[in-house]
Amino acid sequence: MGMNRRQRIVMAIIVSGSLVYIILTQALLVFGSAPGEPTQPEVRKLCSFDLKGEGSTKGSNNSAPIIYVVTPTYRRPEMVAELTRLGQTLTLVKRIHWIVAEDSLTCTAPITGLLQRLGLSYTHLASPMPEVYRKERYVPRGVSNRRAALEWVQEHGSDRGVLFFLDDDNAIDVRLFEEMRPTETVSMWPVGLIGDYTVSSPIVKDGKVVAFYDGWPAGRKFQVDMAGFAVNVGFLKKQKKVTMPYIAGHEEDGFLKSLGLSIKDIEVKADGCTKIYVWHTRTAKNPSRALKLEKHQNDNIKVLTDNMREMGMIK
Amino acid sequence: MGMNRRQRIVMAIIVSGSLVYIILTQALLVFGSAPGEPTQPEVRKLCSFDLKGEGSTKGSNNSAPIIYVVTPTYRRPEMVAELTRLGQTLTLVKRIHWIVAEDSLTCTAPITGLLQRLGLSYTHLASPMPEVYRKERYVPRGVSNRRAALEWVQEHGSDRGVLFFLDDDNAIDVRLFEEMRPTETVSMWPVGLIGDYTVSSPIVKDGKVVAFYDGWPAGRKFQVDMAGFAVNVGFLKKQKKVTMPYIAGHEEDGFLKSLGLSIKDIEVKADGCTKIYVWHTRTAKNPSRALKLEKHQNDNIKVLTDNMREMGMIK
Known about the structure:
Chains A, B: It comes from Penaeus vannamei. 2 copies of one chain form a homodimer. In chain A, the strands form 3 sheets. Chain A has an 8-stranded mixed β-sheet, sandwiched between helices. Chain A has a 3-stranded antiparallel β-sheet with strand order 8-9-10, with no helix packed on it. The first copy, chain A, has a two-stranded antiparallel ribbon with strand order 6-13. The longest helix of chain A has 27 residues, at about 5-30. Chain A has helices at about 5-30, 80-90, 110-120, 130-135, 145-155, 175-180, 235-240, 250-260, 270-275, 300-310, and strands spanning about 45-50, 65-75, 95-100, 120-125, 160-165, 170, 185-190, 190, 200-205, 210-215, 230, 265-270, 280. Chain A has about 325 residues and is an alpha/beta fold. Chain A contains 10 helices and 13 strands. The first copy, chain A, folds into 2 domains: about 45-280, Spore Coat Polysaccharide Biosynthesis Protein SpsA, Chain A (Alpha-Beta Complex), CATH 3.90.550.10; about 290-315, no CATH class.
């Protein structure tokens, strides 16, 4: 080859370096191109929908932006109770589209019944968490189904609309919906009953967000709770790579970073972030039991517990 | 005296027996005439009220019986969140009068504001638990304020109306209100997410209550949760000695027994007690903190936390 020892060494470094580069980039493509991107396929199912409420004349302003409320949920004893309570509250708000996204392969019949009964404009999705994440120490719960809802909003949402994530166990003052409705990029407000400060809020000086008051910084640029912000749908659609990472505790931060958001662009709501209109309440868990019913084959308890099983209240 | 030794002994027994009887009955009058009756004076305060909703024409039947919903509450970080969530739900129901009774000497301003804002017919009471009960191993929480509300209903309630106890952290399907509205004596239905069976329900055979399906019998005649029954106000007023005992875990049983109720007279609701329209959900507790705010005297966090303190969210 006519190369001396020194040239051969340089050549070997170049070749092996190229091989390492090729292997690494291929590995990234296979195992996820960025931290928190899905490493297993996501299965998504549209169970049912109804857009009837969207053209509704309820309220005085029937051309107001629609609020797309995204509520992830999963089968557990409290599921139907919490969705009933939250869904009834949403019927008090005009121009709402409720996206209920279940972390399961199929949709739950009592939730379908609830959605049909409430008379809201709604979409009912099923999108189970890929199995690989269920084995993690901190399970990124609610990500697969929020991602499915996000995709739905990007595809079907009105550009003038507003996206808002609201968990099924949270408590909300309905005045917050009118606060968030005029959002042009991303708006924020305080969330009560969370973390070491009992609140998570933007710190506001001279009407602008300058930092965050939050008991769990965790290296996050946006130290906010999922219920602490809303996003304009037109703004969302303009972003190139919107995502929510499968990283527990960093879902909000990862999502807001993927919007290319700058802290100075945040719109301040709730009276300069001094009022609390939403709380990160958590409902106490109940064990999922299998009941013995030998003695109750001839009374109401048999039918009652069959109904409870369908609601996910017992095994 | 002309009595022999034997007669003197009999006389002494009679006299001392009479003295013991008089002392015991007087002691009962002073310290409570029955188990669970108050042994210290109860302080009651009517803070504010509004009856505007009662003559309302909302809904088709504006002469339907009024439902008196009694919600006891006490100062804690979750109080305003839970009352906001529940109160908003109640605005979906016609012909409701909401009695919010606080376990405190005075009424809380944000609750007054909430009640005025919701537009419900309401009564806002304060009735602190007598100090003696706060030292008990099982504190009978919510009794002093429910007793105050009970007294209000006996004095001001419409005879055709219906009394219903609903705690601020419970979840309710609004269809339950129409189930309970025609109650003539006492009606009952299942309550979900409670005890070892995940439900508490009457056992119904041939349309009649024959027993109770409840994981905690505890020697109770009526094994029911507070949210599991409604009482006709006219029926309530006819009873001679209506009470609710200061005995934790026996409030419902003591109250229903004081109505002279027989199990065979219970009216069965919720499709023969096979449907769940109310859940004994419990909201996870948050610590009551005192926050340090030296660094936040010139931004929104000072005002935000002042507002939180007024709501009872922090110390």
